[in-house]
Predict the 3D structure of the following.
Amino acid sequence: MFTTLSIIGLAVTLVGIGLHYFMVGARIKILAGHPARPRVLTKLIYLATLLMVAFLAATGFYAVFFSGHPLSGYPLMLHCIIAPAFVLGLAALALLGAGRCRFNMPPVSPWAHKLCFWLMLILALPLILSIALAMFPLYGTTGQRFLLNLHQYSALIFAMLVIWHAYLLTASRKS
Amino acid sequence: MYAINTKPSGPLAEKTLLAPRRQAASKSLTPSSLICKQSIRLALAFIVTMAATLQANLRTDSPAPYVHELTLYDANGERIDHEDQFEAQPYSANATCRRCHDMAHIATGYHFNAAVAPSDPGRKGEPWIWLDADTRTQIPLSYRDWPGAFRPGELGITSWEFTRRFGRHLPGGLGPVDDDPFETDDPTESAERWHISGALEIDCLICHSADPTYNARDRAGQIEKENFKWAATAAAGLAAILGSTQSLPDDFDPKLPELSGPDAELPITRYDAARIESNGRVFFDIVRTPPDDRCTFCHSTLGADANLPPRFQQDRDIHLAAGMTCSDCHRHGEDHNVVRGYQGESKHSDNPAADTLSCSACHIRSPGVDEYTGRLGAPIAEHKGMPPIHFDVLSCTACHSGPSPQDQAVGIQTALAHTLGLADEHRDRADPPAIVEPVFVQPYTIGEEAIRYTVSGKFEPHRLFWPAYWAAFDGGTLTPLPIATVKELLTDILKLDAKEQGQFPRDWKPLADEQIRLALETIQPTLAEGQTAAYVTGGKVHALENDQISAFDHNQAQPYSWPLAHDVRGSAQSLGARSCRDCHALDAPFHFGSVPIDTTRAAAAGAGKTMTDFQNVDVEYVRRFAESFKYRLALKILIIAGAMVLAAVLFLFALKALGLIMKVTTRNA
């Protein structure tokens, strides 16, 4: 079920991005305005976090798409090593970028970009807490399976949002 | 292959003619008196047969115990004359019990059906270990086709010899039917002694007697004397058995004993008059559910490690401590096809309760499959904090069964291998065979060959021992040599000197390389062309190469292991109950505990393996993963801190957004 939904979700995201670029991409250039350039530090943190997301998604979805087994072995170990760094990077981005992404501020970036940003932060909470809580003796097997499913599905939606956010960021830069 | 000793239920039909009996010297008999006696006996037999017909298949259908006051019958189906001090026969459980119970059906049960082909061997279990100190042989035997175990016939061991050696802890069912001479086409079988010793019938009382005077040790003693037919009578305390069949020659004919000499006679059975009631019947204190003590005579263990605390300081199985009995889980119907209780048993057993009496059936609540969850008060396992992947790779027993894993697998003795339950002044914790537990085994297959075998396909705790035997190696396959041949060839070479005897447990002195070399040289001329003499010990094959001993690995030299399930520890004592580092640590016994190698080669003594040698894992990965758990706390702190920052940002800006909304709505208002 999750494999099927993952394929559909990621496919829809990529198709949507393609359609958006060809149909709406020119308008972004007009509406983009004059975005204040983010600081270098923010860019670096964003880039690093993006790479970590890509790695986490690769290791996580590899188990889903290719191995057919739950994540284990070296991919699991690396996934667990990168995960805290990702969390810290995302927290830093939240602190540095939240002000720029307020909806009541002039549109330094498109509304969709801001929406993606806030949705990512909201989704990051179940994504992170599902695994964090699973590491404590709080939930039995049924709860553990629920938390794992929560982690999987929130990771899927989070990945879709990251792809959109990265696209929108790139599109606004081109303008 | 030996036959199951049963007769079909129902009226006696096979033998109504009496065998000629040896007459007491003081009696003088005329042909007419002989005919008269025979007629009376025939009439009595007919009456008994009719009575048996009326009695057959009596049922009460009540859980209340049925008082068994029984007439005793011998193996020929004839009523026993208890008062006859010379000619009385031992009682036959088969002949006595079958008047109400379908003994043929019972004989198909798991305790009795080992040699009945094609019975499904089911999960690999504890083998019988043939031990011979003179030749330093310890080899696993089983009539079931378990990987790694040899059928007794492969080593030239007849079913009679097997019975004599292991009947002490067997419930019976061995030997010919109807006391006829044993007939078989199996060239490894021999009918030599069955007609003398009698068959070792299924002894119902070995499980179903609630009489505390039932003495399995007396039974074992009679078996040791080769009085198989008399064993059940002695154990039940019904009679004193005088004499032994051991001294009788192979050609002794019970029907014509005088041909073997004046002193040649079968054992005499003297019934205890106090056990015989006034109506000639005997009371048996029989229960439907065997008391646990009956089970533990054959199914018990003893820690053999010097560092283990004494038995009184060790806790019992948690189920027993909670008030359950062995039979609460290990159930069966009249077919005696007992539930063994392992996952997936229903694939190997016809017992409809097989899958409902496993660990998970009682303790795990699974959606749609929880009809029996919590039965008999079983606590529901929650496994809080345990990632579900553990249940894909670990059996329940891996965390919950056996002794708490130590740095090294500990020595264990078993009833079957070490004759626990039989009094022996020479007992020693170091007695061979050296069995260790727990060894955490993961299945491993090369092609179709199961090198390590687990039924569940998961990590299981096993008991393990290292076979030692002499064999012929043809470059690919090891074929164990017949025990008798090896004894004949090697006893003089390998036996202990008089001054060495008593210095080693059971005279089990390790072999020097020179002895092994000499033994291999002695065996070699007796082998066929293309075969090389070899000695398997300590997990390696030893053969001569340029007059030197060369040791190499071979799949058939692997140790023999079988899953353990008892004693089950309480949940607070299971692996993982304290922390993940019970298993995921560099000093955790689960992966990094040591397993001593028991070898009879003195030069290789002290060697050992690691648990990972019995697991299909990447050792380097396991080490690194275990090491990463040192940072688990830091991991938790970091991700929770990050999540808190995210939550704080969201909360703060949510409040700001709320404030803005309120300002806008207020302004509009």
Q: What stands out?
A: The mean pLDDT of chain A is 85. Chain A touches chain B at residues 70, 72-74, 77, 80-81, 83-84, 87-88, 90-91, 94-95, 98, 102-104, 118, 121-122, 124-125, 128-129, 131-132, 134-145, 148 (CB under 8 Å). Chain A is about 80% helix and 0% strand. Helices of chain A lie at 2-23, 25-31, 40-67, 73-97, 111-134, 141-174.
